[in-house]
Amino acid sequence: MTRSSLSNQDISAIENITGYVFKNKNLIERAFTHSSAVNGVNDYERLEFLGDSVLQLAVTDFLLNNYKKLDEGQLTRGRAKIVSKEPTCKIFENLDLARFVIASSSFSDDGRENLSDKMKSDILEALIGAIYRDGGMKAAFKFIIDKFSDIIDSVMKGSLIDSKSELYEYCAKAKLDIKFKTQNNGSANNPMFSCVSFVDGKEISVGNGKSKRAAEQDSAKKALELLKKNYDKR
Fold first, then answer.
1. Which domain holds residue 143?
2. What value does the mean pLDDT of the chain take?
3. Active-site residue among 29, 48, 122, 125?
4. Total domain count for the chain?
5. Which of 159, 174, 202 is where one domain is finished?
6. Closest Cα to residue 123, out of 18, 230, 233?
7. What is d(CA 118, CA 95) in angstroms, rounded to the nearest whole number?
8. Does residue 1 lie within any of the structural domains?
9. Among residues 29, 43, 48, 52, which one is catalytic?
10. Active site (annotated) includes residue 52
11. Which among 234, 30, 218 has a CA at the least distance from the CA of 131?
């Protein structure tokens, strides 16, 4: 049978998962209610709209307080990665929240099938909005930092640093023209790409990698180091 509401047991389970006990239990149910179940009335979308902003603010505040050596561009790129669909969807799945989704019969009985990544991300943000609406900023921040801590650490350690985007940003500010030329020097069984970075028409760095993206990132990183060393002294 398709789920039409949350039981007291469901609500208690969600509170155990979030580590937050709601005063207004109706907010929990609303956070998990898809528009298909209520014809667009009292679904999770308004809470998701709120939760998206709260998530952005919480992550911004945390990054400013804990990564003081990074500049605004690095913080902005890090935040964008942290609050994007992929991490929020992953957290939704790790918390096993699909079983609580209230939706129409077009979704499976256990709530696991037919859920898009966007829907998973939206419901997690709706849950954040519900916590904020019920318990305020402190409660919402606590939930966010607790659940996002591993992702924040991974992103800010540089595993997802985008040197190419950083190079474009640097060149735009310095009014320099940047172009890349990438080619495959390997074979189908052993791909190897090389990328040359040109600044104002002059070759400045060469990068290598097993993929086009890896080669471009390597070349961009080297170009950035040279530009910062030479142009910043002018």
1. 8-159
2. 87
3. 125
4. 2
5. 159
6. 18
7. 16
8. no
9. 52
10. yes
11. 30
